[in-house]
Amino acid sequence: MTRARILGLLLLYGSCFESSLAWAQADTLPVSLGRYRIPYANATTVRASNDHTSHPTTLNRIDLVGQDGAPYTIVAAARGWLRLIEDDNTLWCPAATGGNPNPCGILPSTQCCERNDNSCNANCRNNFVWIEHTNGEWTKYSHMNTGSVAANGHQLNDFVQAGEALGIQGRIGFASGPHLHFEAARPHDGIDSFDSAGFLVGDGDGSSTDYNRQNRIAAFCNGGVSPIWVANEQRVAANCPGACIGAQAPADVIGDGEVIHRQAGTITPSPAHRVLAGGGEALFASTRITLGPGFRAHPESYFSAGIGPCNSPGGD
User: Fold this and answer.
1) CB atoms within 10 A of CB 240
2) Max Cα separation, the chain?
3) Element (H, E) at 118
4) What is the DSSP secondary structure assignment for residue 190, as one 8-state letter?
5) pLDDT for position 242
6) Predicted TM-score (pTM) of this structure
7) Does residue 315 surpass a pLDDT of 80?
């Protein structure tokens, strides 16, 4: 496997995974280890306004918008520790467009600041929370209403459960309107991977399809046909089901441009299972993953395999 790397477990052809995590990686978009719940209160209908391919300026991030009538409660996508909290910012900073040159409308400057107005943009920052999960991934929740995290009694380093309320969907900071900006990431340097504004540092070109990027394509456990959420698709938030399906035999070939996330109790691809250049696949099983002697993750592809509880973010 030219340029591919195997980390974690030793990959033995014809044998099976029993624990931990194995990676074969090259240059394509990386996928989250496991599956996260939709980060809204149960029964909330949510639409993806941007997905991992269409998010402005930075791939692998997703924008979500509640559809049932505000306010919308934002919840933890999986259990973990609250490592970064910014809850005090108050300004909304929308972008002017040709069709809407004054997006603040009649709002006072104490609430809204045009992005081209340098006199106040220095004070316009996002509210956000970063949660560290037990699998080494972190998730981010941006633009929540001022003080809504504190209103839930949260403090730095508190441990929260999946589905526990974090704050209220808002538009604080640089936002087109009320929504939740959500990220899943595997930081290179833990807490030192973030700057004071809550952004990942050292992530290279945010528009690149490079597996070394810290941001991951978030896979979700509920609400859709595929765990990979696409723009304009609507899903309904709910607790992740705990049970795995019994077994799964993936298709022989993952092609260029395909990003696949599969999970089951056991997974046994065909002996000649391949992930071609430009393709990505994440396998996750509660018991065992067996790869045959012909398995190959090609250069410029992405492959991961892990064992742990189904419908969790891997390793919980």
Assistant:
1) 21
2) 67
3) helix 118-121
4) G
5) 77
6) 0.88
7) no
